[in-house]
Amino acid sequence: MPTTGAPTKLTQGSQARGGIGASTLRPDGTLKVTGEFAFASDMWHEDMLWGQTLRSTVAHAEIVSIDTSQALATPGVYAVMTYDDLPTDVRTYGLEIQDTPVLAHGKVRHHGEPVALVAADHPETARRAAAKIDVEYRELPVITDEASALAPDAVLVHENRDDLPQGPPASDGPGGTPIAGHVPHPNIVHRQPIVRGDVEAARERADVIVEGEYTFGMQDQAFLGPESGLAVPEEDGGVHLYIATQWLHADLRQIAPVLGLPETKVRMTLAGVGGAFGGREDLSMQIHACLLALRTGKPVKIVYNRFESFFGHVHRHPAKLRYEHGATKDGKLTHMKCRIVLDGGAYASTSAAVVGNASSLSAGPYAVDAVDIEALALYTNNPPCGAMRGFGAVQACFAYEAQMDRLAQRLGLDPVEFRQLNAMEQGTLMPTGQPVDSPAPVAELLRRVKAMPMPPERDWESSEGADVRQLPGGLSNTTHGEGVVRGVGYAVGIKNVGFSEGFDDYSTARVRMEVIGGEPVATVHTAMAEVGQGGVTVHAQIARTELGVAQVTIHPADTRVGSAGSTSASRQTYVTGGAVKNACERVRERVLEIGRRKFGSYHPAWATAELLLEHGRVVTDGGEILADLADVLDDEVVEAEEEWRHRPTEPFDPHTGQGNGHVQYSFAAHRAVVDVDTELGLVKVVELACAQDVGKALNPLSVIGQIQGGTTQGLGIAVMEEIVVDPRTAKVRNPSFTDYLIPTILDTPPMPVDVLELADEHAPYGLRGVGEAPTLSSTPAVLAAIRDATGLELNRTPVRPEHLTGTG
Amino acid sequence: MRVSLTVNGRPQEADDVWEGESLLYVLRERLGLPGSKNACEQGECGSCTVRLDGVPVCACLVAAGQAEGRDVVTVEGLADHARQRAEGGGTRGTGGSETGTPLRDAQRWKAEGGDSRTGEGTELSPIQQAFLEAGAVQCGFCTPGLLVMADELLERNPNPADADIREALCGNLCRCTGYEKIMDAVRLAASR
Predict the structure, then answer these.
(1) ipTM of model over 0.90
(2) Would you give the distance in Å from CA B89 to the centre of its chain?
(3) Domain residue ranges of chain A, discontinuous segments joined by +
C-alpha cells in the first residue's frame, strides 16, 4: 500500500483569519476566567430544592427492608423515593446492556449503589434526612476477582441475565443459564478472542520467549466538576434537564422511558461541564433529579460532593494481563499470546466495547503475524467500570510495552531500536486482519522523541546546596541527592479513534448564515458536549474556514438538534467537526446559488470560475472579488442541517476476532526521565516528552493542551492514582482527594511536545483524533524509566514506594 | 444567623445562615457568586480559593461565621482587585467602594439554557488575560482558584522562578491541562 500523508492543503478558507490551523482562543474563555461561566453545579432556580442520594454501605446484600418514615417526617423534606416509587416498568438503564437499576431493587451489587432519594429545601437537610432512612441489609458473599467469579459455586452477580447474544446457546452454563461465544459464563460480561496466523509454528522460530504477568490498578477520572444538574418540571408535564454530560442524546434515550415520558417531553440542555474523561458517559444523577422534580413539581438540583462522586461514576477497568512474546535473535517478533482479564464491576456500562478495544489493540503498534488473544470483562461486586480516556487500550499498552523492554534486554538490543524494527507501518495488518490504511509513523515518532534534548542531570545541585524542590520528596526534605538514581524509559501506543465494531457513529450539525449589523455571521448549533476539550473553538474555526466569515456564534448544545454522538473516543473533532464542515459546505453552496441568481448576469465568472468565500466576500479562485456576502444574502437566512458519518466499521467475529472493526488509529510515543530515591522509594518524574501524529492540528494550542493533559493522567496511574478496594468486603477505601492522589503541579514535569501532521485522507482536513493516545504511552514510559533506574521488574501500576524498597 | 462581610469591595449581608455553612456556600448560594468552585469540600483541590483579608484560603474550610466583618475577594472581583493594586490603591478591596458586583447583578444566575454571552469586552486582570492566551483554561473548573492563587503569588513575587510558581500553586488541582500551560500563563503574566 502506498504511503500517503502529505500535509493538508486548503483551497476554500486558505485566507481565513482564525480558521483551522490557527491557535484561536476559546470562545468560552473569558467567561471561564471571570467566574461567569455557568457550570452545572452553578445552576440556580427560584424555589429550587436539593436532591440527595442514599447509597449502599455494603457491596453485596439483599435489602430486607427500607424505612423512610423518619426522613419523610423531617421538616424541609419534600419527597423521599425508593424503587417502589418509580413511575413505570422501565427501572434499569445502561449504555450497552440495560442492567443498572435506577434505584436498588431487593439487592445491592456494589458499595455505593443508589438506594433512595430525598428532596429538601437545603442540601444539609437533604443529607441529614437521607441518613435517617433505615435500610436493613442481609449481606451476601462478594465476587471480587476472576477466581471468585468463575468458581464452581460462584454466586451470580446478575442471576437472570436477559442480554445474552442472539442465536442458539453453545451449551448450558451454571444454573442452566444459556451461554454463547461472547458470554461463556454469566459472571462474564463479554469476551473477545482474536486468532490469526499459526502461533505454534511461529513459536518454533523464536530464539527468545518472554512471558509476563501484569496488574493494572483502578483509576478514577477525577474530573474536578462533580456530577450535577438541575431538573425543572414543565407545564406540559415534561421536564427540562440542565446537565453536565458527554452525550445528551444517549442520556435522553435512557432517561425518558424511566420517567414514562416521550423523548419530546424531556428537554436537555448542556450545562457547563467540569471535565469528563469518560466518567460522564454513563448516567449519574440525571434520572434521579428528573424523578424528584416530577414528584415534587419543583426544580431539583443535585450536586455530588467529592466523596459521592467517587461512587457516582464508573472507573477505568483494573486488569490482569498475561503476555507471551517471541522474537528471533535479529530482533523480529515471531508471535504474541495474551489474556486480558478486566474487572467490569457490578454493572455492564461499556465493558463490552472496552473488551473489544483491549483485545484488538493488545498487540500494540507492532507488526506481528501470529497472535492468540483473549480479553474478557467480569461481573464482580467491585465498583462498576466503564469509559476512561484510552478505553481498554491503556491497560494493554502498559503490558506490551513492558514486554518490549524485556525482549530488547534479552536480545541485547536498544529498546527504541527494537521497537522500530517491529513498528507497524501503513499497510500493516492488525490482529483483526484489518489493514492500517493511513499513515502509521510509529518508528518516526520514536525517533523524534528520542532525538529531543535530554534534561540536565543533577539540576538540583547549586552553590547553596541541593534545591530539594527538584528532588524526589520535594519540600519534605527527604534527600539532598543521596540514593537518587536517574532512569530513562520509552514507550509508544496505538488507540482507535471513533466508535468501532459496526456502531452507527454519526454527528449532526446545523449551520446558519445571515447578515447582522451589515456583517455576515455564522451560527453553529450542535449537541456536542463541550467538556473542556475545545470543540467549540474548533467549530468556530471550521465555520470561518468554510464560510469566509469573521464572526461565528456557537449555539448552546441541546437536544433541539440531532445527536452529536459522545465526547469520547477522540472522536468529536473528527465526527462532529466533519458534520460542521459538511453543513458549512451546504450553506456555502446555497449562498453561491443565491449569488448566481442575483448577480450571475453581471459577471461571467459566476458561471465559470471556482468560487470561494473569503473575508466576507465571494471571490474567484484567482482572487477576483465578485460580491460582498452582505449583498448576496441581504435579509435571507441560509440554514443547513447535516448528519455526517465516518466510514462504516463491522463487528469482530465472535470466535476469530477478524473484521474491519476500527475507523482510524492514533499514535503517540513518550520518553520519560525520572529520578528515584531508591532508599525511600520516592519517584520524581523529571521530564515527560511526547511525539504524536495528529494528522492536522486544527488548533495547535489545544492539541498541545490535550497531549499534555493526557500525558499527565498517564503519569498519575504510573506513580500515584489508584482506587483501593478492600478484597474482603469490596468496599472502596479511599473515596477522597486526601486519599486518592492525582498529580499536582509539583508532581508534573515539563512536557515538551513534538507534533507531526501526516494527513489521513479519509478524515476531514486529514485530522486524527488526539485526546487519548498520549494517555497510553505515558504510563509505560514512566514505568520503564523507573525500571531503568532501579533494575526492578515492576509488573504492576501504580508503583508505590514499597514496591521500590522491597517493603510491600 | 446573619453574616456581614465585604465581598469584592462591597458590603454584603446573608440572612438565615445555618451555623454549619461554609464561606463557600454563602458566597455561592446566598450571595449569588458561584465563581468559586466546590470540587472536594475538604481543602485538597483549591478550586474554592478566595482571599480572606488578603490571605488565600480554601473557602470550603472557612465557616461562614468566621468571615464575619472580614474582607473577601473572589474571582469575580479579581479584575477590580488587580486594577486597584495597579493604581496604588492597596492590595485589598475596601468596604463601601463603588467597584465590585452589585448584589442584584450577582444574583441573576438562572438556568436559561446555557450562556450565549461571550464575555467580550470584559475587563480582565493580567493573570486572567494570560490564562486565556496561554491556553491554561480547558474545562475551567479549577481556573477561578488558580487565578486567585496565582494573582496572590505575583502580588508577593512579581518575578517568580518556576520552582516558586510550582510551590505556590501546588494546592490547586487541575485535571485537564497537565499544568504546563498554567506555568506558561503565570510566566506570561509576570513578564508583563
Answers:
(1) yes
(2) 19
(3) 29-37+506-645, 40-141+230-273+280-301, 443-497+663-805
